[in-house]
Every structure is written in C-alpha cells, then in structure tokens.
Design brief:
alpha/beta, Rossmann fold, 6 helices, 16% strand, globular
Length: 225
Amino acid sequence: MSDSPVFIITGASSGIGEATARQAAQAGHRVVLAARSAEKIEAIAADIGGLAVPTDVTRWEDNEALVRRALDEYGRVDTIFANAGFGGARGWLKGEPEEWREMVLTNVLGAAYTVRAAIPALTEAKGHVLITSSVAGRRVLPGSFYSVTKHAVTAMAEAIRQDLDGSGVRVTSIEPGMVDTPFFDNPVKNALEADDIARAVMYAVSQPPHVDVNEILVRPTAQSG
C-alpha cells in the first residue's frame, strides 16, 4: 500500500538481512534490499515484492544513492537496518591486514555511512535506526578483530541515540550470539536461526512510538559465553 512504512535493509542478500526482509514484507512494510550481490537481492525482491538496490556500504555515494532511490520510489523512509558486515579468524596473527581494513570499512564505517545517509528522511518520518552489533560487541573475544569492530558498532548505536534524542527517531542495537548463517564457513550446532534474529528486529520495530528498545542481546540457549 502507498502509505505503508518503508524499511531499508543492508546486507540483505542472505542470513539475518534476508530473513528480516521477508518478515518485514509479511508485516506490511515496503522493503528496500541493499547488498553488493545484485542478482541475489533482485531474486529476493521479486519474491517478496520489494525493491533491490545494489549497494557497497563502504562507498558513501552508494549509501546516498540507496536512500535517494527509496525516497524516489516510495516517498519516505521509516526504518533503516544497517546490517552489512563480516567476520574473520580469531588470533592477532591470523588473517591478513587487508582483511582487517575491509572489516573496519564494512562493519564500522559502512554502518555509519548508511545511518548518516538516512537520518534526514528518518527524522522527517520519526523513524527507526537499527544496527547489527553482536555478543562480540558486548564482551571481548580473544584475538578477535571482529569483536573490536562490533564494540565500535555498539558504541555507535548509543552515540546515534544520544545525538537523535528528542527527534522522535528510535535507535536499536541488535546483538546476536551464534547464528547459523553464511557468516560461518561451517554449519553451527545448537545455534540460532536467522529468523530468530529477524523476529527480534521486528519486535523492536513494532513497539509503539514512545517505546525505544535500545539493545537486544539474543543468545542460543546452549551458548555459554
């Protein structure tokens, strides 16, 4: 419907992003899917009736274009879910320095760019910012540079919340534990499903305007740490 809320999701080609896109569409949102993989998001968009916008979140101009395309197509932006990100091997001598650089650019700078590009439209709509952090953004994982980036994301969500205080815009940090998604190279036993995290996202979004769920930390029952 033309007056339905508009929900932008980055990292929407698989995992938590895809699951959230499907649940948001089922809940009546007009969904804008963003990821670098055009073919994947176009297939999902065709399936759920959404809009696919190929986007590299590490490029400021791509984030500007993403929000502009949503506004051109739908006239508003109500929710932005800065979900794009990836991890790497634990151990300070594991992985490559260039991988660390790309992790910062995607997980931290990419999320910051996405939110910044959307803030004017979100302020007008009194909308909602959601950012995917992690349990790794609440406690330090030994030797994990990914954990470093997610601590930055957790701080980012609070910094944005304080900055937008009084604007009517809500801010939520989504902090998953172990989730069985393409994020991991091998299947994860006793893990959460992507749909579990998507339900947490939709819980935060579905609250009345005066309720801002600032953080949702979701672990599988079997995860001790």
